């Protein structure tokens, strides 16, 4: 049987404009002029005898007929693109990731060599921010954030935070093989802003009721870790964020108590998900699950 298919260029122009909500952005993506997009869309509308777009203040939007048509043909373009990439194109290019400072330094950067070995043509650019993110509004490809509770739709868990006590080896006071909890309770304790769990940690460590503690003003994660390394006290911290310091021997974990408390999650920009390099980095991140 023969297929009833309009010419490819008008279909590409329509799909890009419908996806991006803009003739200008569609022209930039397809590397053609704005007038070419407009001409292709008008020709397609004439062929289909249907109005596909209406103008709005920030660009264009699909009509009801246009949306129904777009929803049918856009997956076909995506399927063709994915099939072609899988056969012919290694992932390459720049991928942008927004995340927090501590997880970037302690968890992502130590793993970047494995990303480079697997995908040598991908350049991962990391932007540091503690703000709640709208990765699509800020045009990041990927976003990685700590979330205390269940994540919104579209977020995937990288790892659950498991909070333990850490200190410089010279600062740890022990009674035999066990940490001297009484001595610890009266020594300098570092309060990190997210993991304010000292009462629970002492109870789980066997000191009940928990001692009355005089805790300092909470620090951010990186300052809290650096304070513990400097011998200024003991810190409660997610063990994943202390990996480099524990491996190098500048910090040690006091006991086996771990308190699950939130986790780190990654989200992918829906528009960026069309790029093979972005999907490759997203998959690589999920495979680094540290639990």
Q: Could you please describe the fold and organization of this structure?
A:
Helix 1 (about 10-20) packs across helix 2, helix 1 crosses helix 4 and helix 2 (about 25-30) crosses helix 3. It contains eleven helices and twelve strands. It has about 290 residues and is of the alpha/beta class. About 40% of the residues lie in helices and about 20% in strands. Strand 7 and strand 8 form a beta hairpin. The protein has helices at about 10-20, 25-30, 35-50, 65-90, 100-110, 110-120, 180-185, 200-205, 220-230, 245-250, 275-285, and strands at about 55, 60, 95-100, 120-130, 140-145, 155-165, 175, 180, 190, 235-240, 250-255, 260-270. The protein has three domains: about 10-90, Arc Repressor Mutant, subunit A (Orthogonal Bundle); about 95-150 and about 265-285, 3-Layer(aba) Sandwich (D-Maltodextrin-Binding Protein, domain 2), CATH 3.40.190; about 160-260, D-Maltodextrin-Binding Protein, domain 2 (3-Layer(aba) Sandwich). The longest helix has 25 residues, at about 65-90. Strands 3, 4, 5, 6, 9, 10, 11 and 12 form an eight-stranded mixed sheet that branches. The radius of gyration is 26 Å and the shape is elongated.
Furnish the topology, listing elements before pairings:
Elements: H1 8-20, H2 23-30, H3 34-48, E1 53-56, E2 59-62, H4 64-88, E3 93-99, H5 101-108, H6 112-118, E4 122-128, E5 142-147, E6 155-167, E7 174-175, E8 178-179, H7 181-185, E9 189-190, H8 198-204, H9 221-229, E10 234-238, H10 243-248, E11 252-253, E12 259-268, H11 276-287
Helix pairs in contact: 1-2, 1-3, 1-4, 2-3
